[in-house]
Amino acid sequence: MLLAELRHLARRTIVRVLLIVLFLIPVLLCLAVDLSSGPSGGGGPAFIDRVSHNGVFAALAGLTVCLPFFLPLTVAVVSGDAIAGESSLGTLRYLLARPSGRVRLLLVKAGVIAVFSLVAALAVAIGGLVGGVIFFPVGPVVGLSGTSFSLLDGVGRTLLAALVVGLSLLGLAAIGLFVSTLVNSPVPAMVLTAGMVVVALVAESISQLDFAHPWLFSHEWFSFGDLLRTPVVWNNIGRDLLLQAGYVAVFGTAAWARFTTRDVLT
User: Fold this and answer.
1) Per-residue buried b or exposed e for 18-32, using 16+ beta carbons within 10 Å of the residue's own CB
2) Total domain count for the chain?
3) Which of 122, 251, 230 is nearest to 182 (CA)?
4) In this predicted model, what pLDDT tens digit does every residue of 15-52 receive, in sequence order?
5) Is the full-model pTM beyond 0.85?
6) Whole domain around residue 68: which residue ranges?
């Protein structure tokens, strides 16, 4: 059932378009840096001032640019559509007619969203690596601690950073899945989920809400940069993954409670 849902998701035009856009964003970023010779005085998003020296950093710069908006938006689209989209098309009742049960269907949908989150982050990283190779020199990577490691190690750390980013989106994905069980149309679910991202990012910028910042699902989104340190600093990454696990537990349970008692015949 999981493979069938993954194939169904991969065949959807909107999903393919989203992944292509995510792939192209860091490529266009590389083009912009190449044409402008990069930001002056180290300005711009994190890692952007290093791109012209080593194309590997284009992937990390792409993740930094996409993480506040583009990546969460794609996850909001897919997670918001998970249950509400089936309900809108009238296929939900037929899916539940299988001997799979509601819990299994919900778990499969959650697994599909998780896989998409990882693939979306990898699409950005791979696009950045491709753009970096095309426009800039590549070689041994000088990390954030000032130490150098091999190109292969740098690419490996970059792909691991994409994996961390994908996992960092699971809290939002759980929220989207829960919202998707509340409505019968995917558009409101997508909008509400994307709205949660805006609320979280705005709350992050308000100093009076410092007490709440550690509990926001977006608080440690940019901790993946610590993978470029020697030795790797895992503290913030660990807190991020633990926070996402908490959101998955809370909103996953809420989605289960709602979906298992929901009347899908109306």
Assistant:
1) bbebbbbbbbebbee
2) 1
3) 251
4) 999 999 999 999 999 999 988 866 655 555 678 888 98
5) yes
6) 2-259
